[in-house]
């Protein structure tokens, strides 16, 4: 058994990937999310609607470049944190900004498992 009492190994990620995730999620260490422009796009309401349904804790956002995906995500995170969501429950991964994924098998599952054990479950 590991120190958490589980027979399963505690998930680990390459240090470079952990550094990328911590850089993309500054609220985990008490730093504020980047300030976002005021007007909320239609996409923000659509994503919030899916999050509020609580059918799944994950929402993937994809689409053409330069249409506001990143801004919408950061506006939602800003809103969630302002509304009192614990920072350790918010994970954002911008996959095209994570150069350390090259050799990782099942990166989405591995990142989610790592997040659950090292960030969300650590608080």
Write up what this structure looks like.
- The longest helix is centred in the middle third of the chain and has 14 residues, at 69-82.
- The protein has 123 residues and is an all-alpha fold.
- The chain has helices at 15-24, 42-53, 69-82, 107-120.
- The mean pLDDT is 85.
- Helix 2 (42-53) packs across helix 3 (69-82).
- It has one domain (15-120).
- It is globular.
- The two termini are 21 Å apart.
* Topology order in helix (H) and strand (E) letters: HHHH
Count of domains: 1
According to DSSP, the number of beta strands is 0
Poorly predicted regions are none
Overall form:
globular
Average residue-wise pLDDT: 85
Structural class of the helix and strand makeup?
A: mainly alpha
Sketch the major β-sheet. Answer: none
Helical segment count: 4
Helix content: 40-55%
DSSP strand (E) fraction?
under 5%
- Rg for CA atoms: 15 Å
- Please report the distance between the alpha carbons of the first and last residues: 21 Å
């Amino acid at each position: 058994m590991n120190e958490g009492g589980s027979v399963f190994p505690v998930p680990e990620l390459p240090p470079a990937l952990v550094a990328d995730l911590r850089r993309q999620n500054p609220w985990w260490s008490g730093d504020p999310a980047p300030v976002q422009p005021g007007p909320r796009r239609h996409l923000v309401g659509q994503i919030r609607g899916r999050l509020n349904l609580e059918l799944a804790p994950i929402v993937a956002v994809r689409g053409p470049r330069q249409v506001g995906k990143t801004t919408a995500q950061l506006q939602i995170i800003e809103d969630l944190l302002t509304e009192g969501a614990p920072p350790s429950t918010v994970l954002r991964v911008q996959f095209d900004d994570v150069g350390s994924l090259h050799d990782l098998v099942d990166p989405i599952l591995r990142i989610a498992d790592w997040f659950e054990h090292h960030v969300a479950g650590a608080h």
